[in-house]
Design goal:
The complex is a heterodimer of chains A (about 180) and B (about 280).
Chain A: E1 3-7, H1 12-16, E2 23-32, H2 35-46, E3 59-61, H3 89-94, E4 99-102, H4 108-116, E5 120-123, H5 129-133, E6 136-143, E7 152-166, H6 173-181
Parallel strand pairs in A: 1-2, 2-3, 3-4, 4-5
Antiparallel strand pairs in A: 2-7, 5-7, 6-7
Chain B: E1 2-5, H1 6-22, H2 26-38, H3 42-61, E2 71-79, E3 82-85, H4 89-103, E4 130-136, E5 141-148, H5 150-153, E6 157-161, H6 166-181, E7 189-197, H7 199-209, H8 221-235, E8 250-260, E9 265-272, E10 278-282
Parallel strand pairs in B: 1-3, 2-4, 7-8
Antiparallel strand pairs in B: 2-5, 5-10, 6-9, 7-9
Helix pairs in contact in B: 1-4, 2-3, 6-8
Classes of the chains: A alpha/beta (about 180), B alpha/beta (about 280).
């Protein structure tokens, strides 16, 4: 298991070298979107309309942060459970996005889409919102402010720690880890 | 009849919410430390180390432990010889909840079920709180509080079994619920199991079981034994911290059992994530 440092936007060359279990420190711009925002973004794609940000090489973070305290760019910001985005993620990957950050299992369609479009599903530590929020240097709401914590934010991260869960070869870290420690 | 001022309750609820948002309870912190020592998977060990570091940062810098600061859930025990001066107890708890979530920079996570929009313009910030009242002897008010996140709530389930299912049937069911949940509810988890009563009694009991301190034993030795059996079975699933694979999927199983109808054996499984933010006060 290797450790990499990647800066967004990322390419197929970046994602194809990663293997489930690798640690990655992410740098650069990342976009946040949860349930309601995904529903709206995918609708725009289906209608052929312009998105509020460029999907090409993007990484989407499934997060709804707490409000920032005065002087901070953002509050606590750990990942939300990813399966709720399963029906949307293949469309996002097909249209140029290269990575997702969340927690918990993805369905087979998402894993297949990671293989087909050189996408990576990264896991961040759920419930470590204070620790992860400190790696975010700036944050700006760029779409859907009425959704509150679910609004789309453009955030800048520095050495944001994530683990490769689903890679471009079809590997699944959750499955591999569980098989190793299951007592039958 | 003892009288308690409305604003005294508001302030007490606000303080407990703000404290709970940033300070992981000692029982949970200690249980995570023990789990980190005992965990066999290096990956899961590292995840638990991050969780402890997160708890230290949150406490020192007064940042929320998790961005999911939950819905506010209360069990309230009102003495028969006490009354609130200046308003309703329910209103005081809701007002304290709103103030605690606002002043603590905690996230408002309530929304309407279909529009998915936040209700803050109509009823308040992260309101209404979920409140379970009971009447007890005395002239005090006991308030138990937990911030209940969505990820662990989403994997919780309930089912009414035929009585013949017995303990074996319940153990299998609990295993099935936790196995299907995998890493989604943010393990290492605490598992609340409500057994008996009616359908809703089992569900509420499974929630209340999560309020019990991790260090305390079940006073009913038969239930304590069943808890120990379930804990072994759950940890044998190999899910590990955040589903990365490991030997510490659960920190504890807590059972609350009630008498039930001769025809039924209701069972509810309520899951709590590792960020078990719970506390209680007596006014």
């Amino acid at each position: 298991m290797a450790t990499y440092s990647l800066t967004t936007p990322i390419t197929s060359e970046d994602t194809k070298q990663l293997v489930a279990g690798d640690t990655v420190l992410l740098n650069g711009t990342i976009f946040t979107a949860r349930d309601a925002a995904h529903s709206r973004l995918v609708k725009l794609i289906e209608e052929g309309k312009e998105l509020p940000f460029d999907l090409e090489g993007s990484i989407i973070y499934f997060v709804g942060p707490t409000p920032p305290k005065p002087g901070d760019p953002i509050g606590s910001a750990g990942p939300t459970t990813s399966y709720r985005m399963d029906s949307f993620s293949p469309t996002m990957l097909k249209n140029g996005s290269k990575g997702m950050i969340g927690k918990g299992n993805r369905n087979q369609e998402v894993k297949d889409a990671c293989v087909a479009y050189d996408g990576i599903y990264f896991g961040a530590t759920g419930g470590a919102g204070a620790l992860l929020g400190k790696q975010i240097r700036s944050a700006e709401v760029i779409a859907y402010p009425e959704l509150g914590p679910e609004a789309v934010r453009k955030i800048t991260v520095e050495d944001f720690p994530v683990t490769v869960v689903n890679d471009t070869k079809g590997n699944d870290l959750y499955q591999m880890g569980r098989e190793q420690y299951e007592v039958k | 009849m003892r009288e308690i001022e409305f604003d005294v309750v508001v302030k007490a609820v606000k303080d407990m919410i703000m404290h709970c948002g940033t300070d992981l309870p000692q029982d949970t912190y200690d249980a995570l430390e023990k789990a980190m020592e005992e965990e066999k998977s290096p990956v899961s060990k590292e995840v638990i180390r991050q969780l402890l570091e997160n708890a230290n940062i949150a406490k020192d810098e007064k940042r929320p432990l998790c961005q999911d600061t939950g819905l506010a859930v209360f069990f309230v025990y009102v003495g028969e010889e006490v009354r609130i001066n200046g308003g309703l107890l329910r209103d005081a708890i809701n007002k304290g909840t709103e103030q605690g979530y606002t002043e603590g920079y905690l996230r408002a996570s309530t929304c309407e079920p279909f529009s998915r929009l936040n209700l803050k313009d109509s009823v308040g910030y992260n309101l209404p709180a979920i409140i379970h009242f009971d009447i007890v002897k005395g002239d005090k008010i006991d308030i138990e509080y937990a911030a209940k996140g969505g990820g662990s709530e989403n994997v919780s389930r309930a089912r009414v079994f035929p009585p013949a299912a017995g303990k074996d049937g319940i153990v299998e069911y609990v295993k099935e619920v936790i196995s299907d949940a995998g890493g989604n509810p943010c393990p290492p988890i605490t598992v609340g199991v409500g057994i008996g009563g009616t359908f809703e009694k089992a569900v509420i009991s499974s929630k209340h079981a999560l309020f019990r301190d991790l260090e305390t034993e079940n006073p009913d030795s038969e239930m304590a034994e069943l808890e120990a059996r379930m804990l072994v079975e759950i940890n044998n699933l190999g899910i590990g911290a955040m589903g990365m694979g490991g030997t510490k999927t659960a920190l504890a199983v807590h059972i609350e059992a009630n008498p039930c109808h001769i025809a039924s054996l209701p069972v509810s499984v309520n899951v709590q994530c590792h960020s078990s933010r719970h506390t209680h006060i007596t006014i």
